[in-house]
Amino acid sequence: MIPLSWYLFFSAALFTIGLFGVLTRRNVIAILLGIELMLNAVNVNLVAFWRYGDVAAMTGQVFAIIVFAVAAAEVSAGLALVISVYRRSNTVVAEDLDLLKF
Amino acid sequence: MTPEKIIFLIVAGATLVSALMVVTTRNIVHAAFWLIAALFGVAAIFAILNAGFIAVVQVVVYIGAIAILFIFAVMLTRKDLRDTSAQQNRNWQAGALIAALTFGGLAALFQSWEKLSVAAPAIPSSFDAVAELGSQLTSPSAYVLPFEVASVLLLAAMIGAVYIAFTRK
Amino acid sequence: MDFLNDPLKVTAEWLEGIFGAWGMNAAFAHVLVVFLGVLLLLVLLMVVDIFLVWMERKVVSRFQDRIGPNRVGPYGLIQPFADIIKLVIKEDITPNGADRALYNLAPILSMMAVLMVWAVVPIAPVILGTDLNVGVLFLIAAGAIGTLSIIMAGWGSNNKFALIGGFRQVAVMVAFEVPMLTMLLIPTIFAGSMNMNAMIQAQDKIWYFVISPLGALIFLIAVIAELGRAPFDLAEGESELVAGFNTEYSGMKFGMFYAGELLHAMTFGGIWAILFFGGYRFFGLEQVSPFLAAAIFLAKALIGYWIIMWVKYTMVRIRIDQMLAFNWIFLTPLSFVLLMVTALMNALLRGTPSWVYGIGMFFSNVILAWLALEIARSVSRKEREKIEGAKPLAEAHH
Hints:
The complex is a heterotrimer. Chain A is about 75% helix and about 0% strand. Chain A has helices at about 5-25, 30-50, 60-90. Chain C is mainly α. Chain C has two domains: about 1-90, no CATH class; about 95-395, no CATH class. Chains in contact: A-B, B-C.
């Protein structure tokens, strides 16, 4: 049987990698990719705690489903913003987007 | 070393390598495809955790919808097909340091937690996780309110996305 | 006799016994046997696929009033092998500036997406890969990988026709996934389970086609769109896009797309049979032997495949905007309404005798189909009047 710690370390590593991507990428879409990795790491934790806790209480899985919905909402709104910004300012580099008003 | 552990290590290793490629590769289209590999690895982890429904939903939602959306967005926001400019910002060393500190802090937290090596309880053979999940998501005494709020959030995001990205003729 | 009643289990136990006798750990022996089972299934599918090539060519030739391949072997049966030799010895071209990794990965993924589906397909009561309790969702997951392979091919080829074809296909697949997923929920409501084997077991009294003909029809339309076959083959559209997403592929890489498409069509013929035509059930014959049940399933899958071919070779291609409008304006709302009506009827008729339940479901389907057609007819009449009303002006101008 796999110990719980393996899952926790795996998800911590995944979260950290995502965090690194969010902090260092210049492209806005790549930053969103990093956020997806972080959300996935959270989901791994939630499902692992469901499996290693009380299996009959589905809290972990319910939370994971809600995280899916939030991720989908975040991506659709986020990418729409990125495309809209690209149309106006012709760039998706985060540090070039420093105007409050176009 | 049981086969289960070997499978976990292979999947986890592949997922982490893919995740590293997502944040380091210069080609953003490749980054999106590496993200798909990482998401697939996470789905496999869910399957190892006996959460079959979550694993399949992960593939349907993330790979079938979110990743495709990413690929479209990457392709729509490129001036030319080459990635010549730098992909990391100036402070990438500071970012790496913060990430390493976060991982170190989490690892230290895990070490001081006594429930870390708890064994997974056996799942009773009569237990139907999908049916249980479905009834809890729709039962007023359980999670129907968060479920409905999440649905409203999705609807709002959909309308917002259409409004923002819409071009007036 | 045990072998004839449950071939997979008996073989697996026999092999595990052999591996155990070699001193192998029981857990490892089990994993190895499962792996061998997967390999066996894949090899069988590939063999079936080879004959699908022959069948497709024979059937299309009959539709087009030709004889089809008849030179190599009896009835041209060896023709697929000649095709394979031709494809293998062709020059393998990678276009200039192609994204090599994605370009080479795409045909493999396209094949994989099809083969993955068979992991959950119950071929006979005891012959099935895994008894997944979310089997029908797994179908959509496998479809997602197929979408991915096409966008990879379109992007990796460094060819504008390929990219347009890839984009079109993704738009179509994402759109038609909605009615497809909705229609997958109708057998789920009837059977009370997402497990495919449980769905087949629940069709012991009546096939779901009889109580939900509209659902079966919408599912078939969505499946044909998912497969990218005519009249929905916009991704290839020879007359406008050369060959769409597989323009740049040659040799066996093209062969994999082609073989994948044929196997995909046959697979979805089988899925259609499982969801709406009782799968391996045929008036109790499936109880006799699992091999007979598998033969029944294969026959039903091939009939479904034949219907898909029939549509493909007798319909004309429609335009991409017409196709997407057809989905978003007509098919998706209709499938949502059908799902709601079915769920409501299911709740109302739950306690009634099964014949009342069946007749109620059937008539709710028929009434809904009639209403949908009436609305579509009145809308299209208005459209036509709008266009024809403008006509005299145009003629006066001449």
